[in-house]
Amino acid sequence: MMNRDAPSATQAGNPGSFYPNHLFVESLAALAVFAATVLAAYVWQVPLEEMADPGDTTYVPRPEWYFLFYFQLLKYFEGPLVVVGTFFLPLLTLTLLILLPFLDTSPTTDIRKRPCAAALSLAGVVAVVALTALSVVEDESHVDKIVLPPITEEQITAGREIFNKFCMLCHAIDGKGGFMAPDLTQIGSRANRAYIERVIINPQIVSQTTIMSVIPLSDAERHEVSAFLSRKK
Amino acid sequence: MSRIYKFLDDRLNLSPLLKEIADHQVPDHANPLKTPTALIYCFGGICLFILLLQILTGVFLMLYYVPSPDNAYAGVNYIQNELAFGGLVRGIHRVGASAAVVMVFLHMMRVVLTGSYKNPRELNWIVGIVLLLTVMGFCFTGYLLPWDQKAYWATTVGVNMVESIPLVGNFLAAALRGGSEVGMLTLVRFYVVHVMFLPALLVIFLAAHFFMVRRQGISRPL
Fold first, then answer.
1. Which of A125, A154, B131, B155 is surrounded by the most beta carbons within 10 Å?
2. Cβ atoms of residues B154 and B143 within 8 Å
């Protein structure tokens, strides 16, 4: 069991040596992960939102992706059952994890001969993956809850007119318009249509302190404006 | 190079120490040069690498970060948008956190798959769980530090969860927040936990982890 290793392993041409052979392979693997990490950090602009505003209780926070499964799990425990999700289930999981080597005591390490350990850990992994996926799917459907008619050329034309009439007093677009509010020339590449709709309905979702007022538009008119803006890329 | 080494070795007797650390055989079943699937045995080493990367990027982020509600956001904003390579370093730290979670998870999966937690390695398995919790602690405390909306409200939700624990929940939540609401004291204690307490815990338990691996060797299939 205790394999104290043979001395003088560090010889050239000994592929089993930890140093330098194995360390080299290990370093290559780490280098690959490092490259992927730097690439991801470079491509994905890490978000920094508005500064924290303790008074803004309308903000709906999302946890980091690796906590999403837990967030999703908590949705199934309400009222007096909340404590099951926040305390008893994590405690049970942790206890099981710690006790694993004392429960799975068969002498074999072959995963095929350890059905209980295999089934339990597989169930755990499947649950985490499924809950994460479920959380992402529910988020998406929540964001796009507003039902939008497909974009037509007439809508875009009408949207441009409405925009010129109301929005351009403050917002600039294609070099024309006001300077009180952000330039919307390329808004379509920054925001999707559902988000634009929600900002028009409730400007404060962008910022608590926005001076943008709620423009009285009918649903059809709002769809026209959002159609126009979402095509401004 | 070898003369410097000889100079140090003559005076400090380093050879036995280095021999203990680096001079040993990796069994064939864990050697990717002999068994390609043995790459899964590299996951632990990759975890160590990412943790070192996190420490390095974290130290650089600390140069421009002040843990107070008035300055935290401004500091992170400066790092992200103005400082040369600041956005990249913060990006690596942020993505690195995700990478650490992924690799720790994969490493655990490997240990379960190969039954490596079995006798005589039960203790190292438990140390591994402590390390897992430490990494999660890093993730939780680090999330508040940018002091943006997401940070603030995600932490509020997290602490509220702690509050729902029976009997000790209220006390624990108050201890985490340093009061009744997430505020300046919360930021300072999350910061100190993130850069002092947890790194100390990490170093101690990593040392134990590696000591036991060397002492017991890499597990063999039984």
1. B155
2. yes
